[in-house]
Amino acid sequence: MSTATANAPSSSSSSSSSTKSSLPPGMVIGPDGKPCKICTAFRHWKPPVDKPKQTQNNAQGGTQQQKTAAMMAAFASGTGFTASSQQQQSSTSTAVPEPEQYTRPAYCPPDVEELGRSTWTFLHTTAAYYPDKPTMAHRVNMLSLLRALPVLYPCSVCATHLGETMKTHPPDVSSRAALSRWLCEQHNEVNERLGKEKFDCSIDKLDERWKDGPTDGSCD
């Protein structure tokens, strides 16, 4: 369901412009003019922390405390401590791996990408089990569910875009195949704007993905 893009439009006031310019690339501004965490991917929300000082210390053979500790350990073991052993020690024990891409810990609130994946999974799966010949009650409830998203979805940027799309391309709840195809088309529209691969919206492929699994039985 994620539709957010970097630095979404906000208020034209000078204060919001100042706030926007001070944000890291990819951070999205909410309708209140403030950074919107649930509208932003975690990698933009909290990017990797650079450690230039630590890297510099490693290049110089470690800190003085590390050198002293290595020397004392060498004397205690009776092996002595020479320039070559110092160099070897600093190239092994004091080496620190390069910073890795900061990933969101499992205990953190969802970001826009996790929320989007979970929402699409729920909607596609619900459509896969929707009746082929829905009753009026089925249709009314499905429409209520879909029409609630632009109002209740936590990411306001995504919700607004979905609401605008639904005005020009209303949900088709006439059958299971029609609903599944409509959702697939909405998902593809989002994926296209995000530069992601599109799905095959044929009902056979949708059923394979969201209901029956592949024919090779690998998901059974």
UniProtKB/TrEMBL annotation:
Region described as Disordered: spans on this chain: 1-30, 45-109
Cofactor(s) listed in the protein's UniProt record: FAD
Domain ERV/ALR sulfhydryl oxidase: 108-210
Alphabetized Pfam families for the sequence: Evr1_Alr
MF term (GO), any: flavin-dependent sulfhydryl oxidase activity
PROSITE patterns xrefs: ERV_ALR
Gene3D superfamilies assigned: ERV/ALR sulfhydryl oxidase domain
Reactions mediated catalytically: 2 R'C(R)SH + O2 = R'C(R)S-S(R)CR' + H2O2
An annotated GO cellular component: mitochondrial intermembrane space
Full protein name: Sulfhydryl oxidase
